[in-house]
Amino acid sequence: MAKKLPRAIVILALVAVGALRAGDFKEPASRSGASPWNAELSSGWDSLYMFRGVNQLPGFDGYGSSISWTALSVSIDLTSADTLTLASWAAFGLSESGYKEIDAAASWAHTFGALSVSAGYALYAVLDETYGLYAHELNAMAAYDVQLGSVVLSPSISYAINLGPAPGNRGYVEQASSYLELRVDGSAPVWRDVVSVAPWAALGINFRYNTTTDRGEPSPFVGADHVEAGVAVPFALGGPVTIAPYVAASFQWSGFPGTRAATPWAGIAASFSF
Is the pTM of this model over 0.70? Predict the structure, then answer.
């Protein structure tokens, strides 16, 4: 029987590609039979495009643009403890209809019981009518699943480093900058196997990845920059289909351009595993 992927591995795959950047709440579908692979197709809507504490589309009127996104991930069991995941994510702005982004990621994960370690690569591509902006990223993660009765807590630490290109050369993040996130995800059943709650909380630590306007012109900086928390409520609709609305809030003290000190947002995702 093919193994069920630990929650921490799924979190890494989603973090790498940004498939659910507002909150990584999904449990993988159980796999049965001898198939060594599974896939998941997801689509959703987010009221704001929040990523690593920053409102990515602040807009000119109001505060930010909502986005619609679609993601596809395929996971392959290489051994009983090793999994390769390939994923893609595509999004476009709704209020800012000119914004389009296509991302791709690959990650490898190894499990030691409840502990998992992972490493991966991600490509972020922001499309533009004149020219595109890109970022190539390497990332790594370690996570541990703690079972407390029917509740699962998954503390994790993840680190990502931007390989480039540099700003001015079609890059949009400073080359060799990096980002560290300390995070705790939870999962608890509410009603049978149909409804559950999945809260999370995270602290972001910036190493010249984000910029601040505290000193006037936007400039990279080093230090802890924001905390965020949220909760999703996944509904299993029978078979492989899940719908999950969520609410979240981010609190930043770093003077991010276009991002308020306190930002709430919400969204919903639907996924189909096969």
Answer: yes
